[in-house]
Amino acid sequence: MSGIPGTAVVQVTNLSSAVSGEQMRTLFGFLGDIEELRLYPPDNAPLSFSSKVCYIKYRDPSSVGVAQHLTNTVFVDRALIVVPCAEGDQALFSKPLSPIGPTQPSRGNVTGRIAC
């Protein structure tokens, strides 16, 4: 049911900027034992963002299928999007994500594009 056989990780997107890691742990902790949770940007980020993304790794892969049922559940002020995430495709549990483009405003035209 998880979509990716054997994965224990879900990606939760469309999160309100007001959401904290503790709130995510409380909500998704009801669905299974959480091994690790990463919220980007983190609660202590110096800049404000319009939305956040969260990765949750469960101890039991069967919790992934259950967590997907929270898709379209309104949490704070937005509908959650919960999808399984292949564990081998992300190194987010070993190091934080880094931006793909300039982190400072540039002068003149920016020729690079952000990869999706």
From TrEMBL:
Database matches in SUPFAM superfamilies:
RNA-binding domain, RBD
Q: What is this protein called?
A: RRM domain-containing protein
Organism domain of life = Eukaryota
Signal peptide (residue range) = none
Which GO molecular function annotations are given, in alphabetical order?
RNA binding
Q: Which organism is it from?
A: Gasterosteus aculeatus aculeatus
PANTHER family found in the cross-reference section:
SERINE/ARGININE-RICH SPLICING FACTOR, SPLICING REGULATORY GLUTAMIC ACID AND LYSINE RICH PROTEIN 1
A GO cellular component entry from the record: nucleoplasm
- Residues forming the RRM domain are 12-78
| Entry's transmembrane regions | none
